[in-house]
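[step 3/7] fold_predict: job queued, chain A
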Amino acid sequence: MVPVAGVVMLGWSGIQAISVVALDTIASLWAVVAVASILVAREQHAAGEKDLYNAVVTGVLVFGIVAGLLTFAVGVVVFVLAGSVLARADLDPGELLQNGWVFYAFGGLLVLHAPHAVTMLATTTGTTAKSVLEPRVGFLLRRLILAGLACSLLSVLWGKAAVFGALVVSQVVLAAHEVFGDRLHAVLFPWANGKPSAARTKRGKSTS
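[step 4/7] structure written:
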């Protein structure tokens, strides 16, 4: 509830507080993509002629392309699902650029995610990368979609009430993910874990 208290009592910008959710998702995705890019570069350097230059260029290209696509995906989700909340709350997107706030905030979030990226890099190999990194990307995107869908349900709220409602709802969604993690997604998205749902399994048995 810290963002809610900041907006209510400390005069924080509502749109800045809400945008932190999207920026945190992008920073998390960039951390995962950075790990994948380093693994790709490492594999190429080890398997080839030890050409460090080509390995680094390959890693940078992989990061630029994949990180760009994921950032675009997050932007689409935010625009489609949360745009109506911003309109009802009469928020000014220009506040994100005041004094370079969005760049400082995103940079700070990247720094906060760096230790987790280092841990992933130390415990992930080229063989296990797909099974470790892909589920993480899916988890982050589904979490953002859930937060956006929850905010889009607040169509009855206007003005500051819409801001407070969006903050409360998004923080509840994030807190639920922190507490339950993958178990929450196993219930909400049973197909995302490569396991068929009970209904699908039952249909399969009846067909056979």
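[step 5/7] annotate
The CA atoms of residues 24 and 109 lie 6 Å apart.
Residues 2-207 form one domain.
exit 0
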